[in-house]
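Sanity check

After download, print the first record. It should look like this:
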Amino acid sequence: MAVSTSSYLKTHYDTAATMGAKVVGSDFALEIVGFESNWLLCKQAPWPELSPQGEIEVPMPLGSLAYQPQQIKPAQQGSISFYETVQGTVDKMIEHIVANGGVFDAWLYEGTPEKYIRRKKITNCFFQFDPIDRDWENRSSPMLITGTLFYHYFGQTEEGNTPDYR
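Expected structure tokens:
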């Protein structure tokens, strides 16, 4: 068991503190182009990052191996969920998107569309939604429309209009 001195721990604390406050997962907004006002209904969405699709195994002498990265992966997917309104706002948005080809573009904000640190553009997006489970016994939570968002991210990131969105 390691017992660290308080002065040693303080150096790590000070170093971490100089890096700034940590991002909170809830501090985001998804804004679908053409449905900008619906950003307040998106509960969950994926935050895109570019990375290799995987590894390439390279054989080496004596049965050993090395790895090198594959091409980056711009085609991505992740869970998405929306709160539905009594007026059917999300249902109507989905129907409109599907009736017009099913594909859309969107912005993901670190902050809100009005005040954000940075935003990321995702393109050629589409939804695959799960059937909604309505339940007579559920009197304690809003209805969620959940599913998977498929999209493309090519690293298009723009700096925001504020250093702090609070």
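If your output differs, re-run the checksum step. Summary of this record's structure: The first strand starts at residue 29 and ends at 32.
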